[in-house]
Write a structure and sequence with these properties.
It contains 3 helices and 5 strands; from the N terminus they run βαββαββα. It is α+β, with helices and mostly antiparallel strands. It has a single domain (8-124), classed as Roll (Hypothetical upf0131 protein ytfp). A 5-stranded mixed sheet has the order 2-3-1-5-4. β4 (93-102) and β5 (105-114) form a beta hairpin. The radius of gyration is 15 Å and the shape is globular. It starts with 7 loop residues before the first strand and ends in a 20-residue tail after the last helix. Keywords: Transferase. GO terms for molecular function: transferase activity. It holds the Pfam family GGACT.
């Protein structure tokens, strides 16, 4: 089965300046631009956020892989996000195609949403991040002298 070559919408530790950006995205992207994911809510996780379907908006970035980096990046992000395959019962996140807003345009992108079991747990006992913006929730990285 061929995977659609969509850009990725990231909203947590993969954002520029966050801990996984350098490990996974730096040098592997052609473009990164601010974007919004409508129809979603953001919840706190253990050091990283989860987006779930809902009546809200999640702030993040649309990441376009560099030429020749798509396959590697897709595999690395699926592994990071605990995505074992579409609908797999062991998934931490499901990779799904969703429309995201970039400036005044809408485009399709891969988004890692919390898998079904995680979503149920978040909805019953999770902590929502007001405004759907991870960067307002985490303290900035420490500065080095």
């Amino acid at each position: 089965m061929t995977v659609r070559r969509l850009p990725f919408f990231v909203y947590g530790t993969l954002l520029p300046g966050q801990r996984n950006h350098g490990r996974f995205l730096l040098g592997r992207t052609a473009r990164e631009e601010p974007a919004l994911l409508p129809g979603a809510l953001l919840y706190e996780g253990p050091g990283y956020p989860y987006a779930v379907e809902g009546h809200g908006t999640v702030h993040g970035a649309l990441v376009t892989p560099a030429p020749g980096a798509y396959g590697e990046l897709l595999g690395r992000l699926d592994q990071l996000e605990g995505c074992l395959g579409t609908g797999h019962p062991g998934n931490l996140y499901d990779r799904v195609a969703r429309d995201v807003q970039v400036e005044e345009a809408t485009t399709a992108a891969w988004v890692y949403l919390a898998a079904a079991a995680v979503t149920r747990s978040l909805r019953t006992g999770g902590t929502r991040i007001p405004g759907g913006h991870w960067l307002t929730r985490v303290p900035p990285a420490p500065r080095t002298p």
